[in-house]
Specification:
Number of helices: 10
Structural class: mainly alpha
Radius of gyration: 23 Å
Largest sheet: none
Order of helices and strands: HHHHHHHHHH
Shape: elongated
Helix content: 40-55%
Amino acid sequence: MSLEEIAAGVEVTHEQHDRGVATVEADPDLARVLADYADELPCSAARAETVVEAYVGGASVGEAGRAAGVVPVEAATTLHLLGFEGVSPLGPAGREVVRDWVDGHLSHAEARELADAGERTFALAAFVETHEPLDGAGERVRGALADRGDAAVRKRDRLRGTMSDAGDLL
């Protein structure tokens, strides 16, 4: 059976409407986004903006904190609460030790020794393991930052959730 035979008798009874590409509303103003979370951040929204800008610009967590006039731990907790990943000072094994301590399977001293971490490092790792990022903050911050990039990158980032990658095909 050919395509012509399959299509024989098929007729269009309704017009198709071009609905365009799905979009995501983003707030392009990082300061306004951070102001919405100011009460839940360890520093002011203005300092948080400086931390985020410096960190996204390539600065380390400590450098971003110094640029904003806050200690590195405060910068790291701010970034974590805003949905940035990778700010825990411990690797995967150390984070597992902290989770074991949080669950009560290890004493504080044992956990610090096993994680090979000082008190401040351990405290920051414990904060990261026991506090979820603020609801919606990561997405809104990424949206505000994405609006600064070029149009193709912005579109890709906004629609990332609708795209699949090669791993999805397996």
